[in-house]
Design goal:
With 111 residues, the protein is mainly alpha-helical. The protein is built from 3 helices and no strands. α2 (25-76) runs antiparallel to α3.
């Protein structure tokens, strides 16, 4: 028999062990459960991402609504122009739309 190094013998033994383990039902079950867990965790993380961004956009819309009220009061007092009221309105509506559609996407994915 040829002189084979210990590292090579260990490599061959490891390869044979992996082949034997990959044929067992336990390994198949472990692989399947890992795949299922990762898929489910990914779906939950996506839902959480949509909910966090939806909340953030709705918070920005609420902030915009406060600014809109302030600018509207200034407009009626003659202290500002209508363009500032229009910008505040567009900002508020845009971020409210983004927030609501983010939550609708969560609901749609859950059905």
């Amino acid at each position: 028999m040829a002189n084979v190094s210990t590292a090579r013998k260990l490599g061959i033994a490891a390869r044979i062990a992996v082949q034997q383990v990959s044929r067992t039902r336990t390994w198949g079950a472990l692989r399947s459960s890992t795949r299922t867990t990762v898929a489910h965790t990914g779906k939950v993380m996506n839902q959480l991402w949509l909910e966090i961004t939806g909340f953030t956009f709705l918070a920005l819309a609420a902030f915009g609504a406060l600014i809109l009220v302030r600018e509207y009061m200034k407009y009626h007092a003659g202290e500002t122009s209508s363009s500032r009221v229009l910008v505040a309105t567009c900002f508020t509506l845009m971020f409210a739309w983004f927030g609501l559609t983010s939550f609708w996407r969560v609901k749609k994915k859950g059905s």
